[in-house]
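User: I'll paste a sequence; please echo it back and then give the predicted structure.

Assistant: Echoing your sequence first, then the prediction.
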Amino acid sequence: MFGYIIINKGDMKFKEYDIYHSYYCGLCQSLKERHGILGQINLTYDMTFLALLLSGLYEPETKHSAVKCIAHPFAKHSVRQNTFTDYAADMNVLFTYYKCVDDWQDDKKITKLAYGNALKKSYKKLCLLYGEKAKTIDALMQKLYQAEQKNSADIDYVSGLFGSIMAELMTPKNDEWQEILYNFGCYLGKYIYLLDAYEDIDDDIQKRRYNPLIQKYNTPDFDEEIKMILTMMMSECCKEFEKLPIIENIEILRNILYSGVWYRYEAVRQKREQKKSEGQDTKNA
């Protein structure tokens, strides 16, 4: 369920993209410093957004430097790091571990089992570091797994569980912004979970895997109903976001929430339309 919280690069100024990329590289450096190369492997745009969001809200002291790395071996590139790139790195590894466990339970993917085992040392360290937060996320992941095993068709319930997981990731502090960040994370998590289900539904049906949208799949207005639900989720998400007193990098964050996440949705929808068209052509041949 990674890869949905992205920028729309075409609607972004060059300077804004450079800042965004510097946080992406900063997250990569934090992953390397805190969890080694194994942590860097699953660097995500989703957690780059988390680092940007929390940095904009709390305005921590941020180290701005230029480094070379494996991905950019010949020229130095801009890097921004602070306490929230470190936090996002930890959440990236924590959630990656749970995703590996989930993939192993669902599909018995040996690669995911191996990667999860390789991350276990970091996972145990993060459980000690984050205490109740890690326990809460673990309990929510268990509930989500149980609901999926029972083939729950309760879309609100299963997406709400993932929303609660995302809400935990979004709330690093017990302070005046906790409730808004929590609600924001809930709606964003629901959007991600349902968009992921929408993207995978054809493959899930073919491979007889769980998908909460299967019972709705053959209804005449399936695609429009899903779009309406996703629109509602992002509308509520953006309402919560606008309550936050963020000034720094606000246009980058709005680019992601008002454009980037829908850019990914349109890509998913176009792929589905193409599959439908190809299927119709096959029937008519």
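The longest helix spans residues 250-284. Residues 131-244 form one domain.
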